[in-house]
Amino acid sequence: MSVWAWLGVVSLDRENIGALPAMGKAAVGLLLALLVLAVGYGVFLAVPLVQLDQRRAEEVALKQQFAAKALQGANLERYQEQLQVMATDFAVLVGQLPSDSEIPGVLEDITRVGLGNGLVFEAFKVQPGVPRPFYLELPIRITLSGAYHDLAAFVSGVASLPRIITLHDFEIEPLEPGNGSRLRMSIQARTYRYSDRGESS
User: Fold this and answer.
1) pTM given for the model
2) Is residue 130 scored above 70 in pLDDT?
């Protein structure tokens, strides 16, 4: 049995739809209602529903941002205290960097440590400054000779100076081939000067 026969439609006349039996009219009405709903959804509701989903996603993101900002706001006092501690530490470190007028004093301190440990300076060359983003690096090439323990005491003495001085690129070799009691050490000492622009010397 076909659907049309079940609806009581024996013959379908497009000119006279009103002559359909009640079940046929109900089926046609239902089909038209579904068609109107589908077209209405596509035309009037699909875009707004997509926009609604987007707004809900934005709402979730904004709530997360708000929660993060609220947490930051709650910890603002602690962050400010940490910032103050960092600023103090930074000032102490910058204070350990020699100024232009103190560079000769740093060179004298290095020389005094070497001579105080019985070392002989063979070369002491201040090299051109190397600009870095927030400081100026001032390399000094030093060649000196002496006993092993005196060289070690020199390195320790330079490290304990009040200004920041780092030691790099060292080479140690016997002063005389076959005699290891006296050594020659070539080393680069670097001191630093604070610069908020990375200027050159």
Assistant:
1) 0.54
2) yes
Q: Are residues 60 and 104 in the same domain?
A: no
Q: Over 60: is that where the pLDDT of 199 sits?
A: no
Q: What is the CATH number of the domain that holds 135?
A: 3.30.70.60
Q: HSE on the CB side for 35, CA within 13 Å?
A: 6
Question: 189 and 144: one domain?
Answer: yes
Query: What residue type is 136 in one-letter code?
Result: L
- Per the structure, the complete domain to which residue 162 belongs is given by 98-194
Average pLDDT, the chain: 83
188: in domain: yes
